[in-house]
Amino acid sequence: MSSEPQSAPDPQPDAGRRPASAPNADPSTQLPIFGGVGDATPPKNGNRGAGHGGVRAERRGSTAALFGSELLTLFRRRRTVALLAALALIPVLIGVAIRLAGDAGSGRGPAFLDQITNNGLFVGVTAIIVAIPLFLPLTIGVVAGDTIAGEASHGTLRYLLIAPAGRLRLLAVKYLSAGVFCLAASLTVVVVGTLVGWALFPIGPVTLLSGSTVSVGEGLLRLLGIAAYVCVSLLGLSAIGLFLSTLTTVPVGAMAATAILAVVAQIIGALPQLDWLHPWLFSEHWLGFADLLRDPVQWASFADNALLQAGYILVFGALACGRFLTKDILS
To answer: Which neighbouring-strand residues pair with 17?
Structure first.
């Protein structure tokens, strides 16, 4: 018996990320997506109110599904796991080094280093102080710089827009995912540091900078507050990385530029000749979480930091939207 041969399905780039509604045609035969929002076509329904309500509900559902898919994709990547593992290694090295070599003495090394042998909860605080100038910005630069440029380099950006995700929604989902990584990164350092300190050193009431002591439970809550503070501190840098990611299809360039800007901002912040510029630097309040270790807690630095980061989010978020909405998607 003769049978007609069946043609094999066309290979699809990044099949795990390709939306179900994307066409099955070969990507080379499709036209590029030119500047525009790219939302769904309104339903052909005589009842316009009911149709628009259905579209809004569908968009909310698709946005949540897209956000969940983006988070799964982000945290399943080996690169993300490697970045978090590298951050977790910082408190481990600090704890093991102090355990083997003993106390470094007062005034030597990072802040709170001389307190670790007396109370292991300070391992997490010391690790955050070590990580925030370079290691945390580097990991944030890798994730934020890859948000849009990474999709474009893999040829999956056009399929995400055909879904239809909508350019603004896709950009918002990418930034929210980068923000979740900021929280995961800061929590990794603090939580692993706390566990290492608990395993290697005695744990007891925490002596604050103001001289008073608080219970272990309140000390742990303040450590979580420090992680939240650091997360907020990195949101402005994430917005910068998102904007730089819309300018190129080479993610390494956006990653490197974001990390370099973080280093440059801290260098400028260390120069007294440029003190007039310091209040405008996104890194100005990065170490202000020390006010969470006072009694009572000084919330002014937290508010100033949040306001500064919100300004960077608004400015560079608007720049990213303006660039992405008018960008021709060719890959």
So the answer is: none
Domain coordinates of the chain in residue numbers? 55-325
Please, what's the largest Cα pairwise distance for the chain?
91
Upper half-sphere CA count for residue 185 (Cβ side, 13 Å): 34
- Token couple for 168: 């603004």
User: Structure tokens of 140?
Assistant: 């944030």
Structural tokens at position 166? 């909508």
Tokens coding 114: 């001389």
Residues 282-292 have pLDDT tens digits of: 999 999 999 99
What is the per-residue pLDDT across 263-305, written as a single tens digit (0 to 9) for each?
Answer: 999 999 999 999 999 999 999 999 999 999 998 998 999 999 9
| The two three-digit tokens of residue 295, written as one number | 């009694």
Nearest partner of 148 among 16, 24, 87, 239, judged by Cα: 239
Residue that has been written with the tokens 């000749």 in this structure: 273
Burial class, 122, CB count within 10 angstroms (exposed 0-12 / middle 13-18 / buried 19+): buried
Cα separation, 208 vs 289, whole angstroms: 13
**Residue 87 · residue 131 · CB < 8 Å:** yes
Residues 44-63: b if buried by 16+ CB within 10 A, e if exposed? eeeeeeeeeeebeeebeebb
Six-digit token string for 86: 């590298």
Joined tokens for residue 275: 């003190």
pTM of the model: 0.81
How large is the C-alpha radius of gyration of the chain?
Answer: 24
The residue type found at 190 is V
* DSSP string covering 226-294: HHHHHHHHTHHHHHHHHHHHTT-S-HHHHHHHHHHHHHHHHHHHT-GGGTTTGGG-TTTTTTGGGGGGS
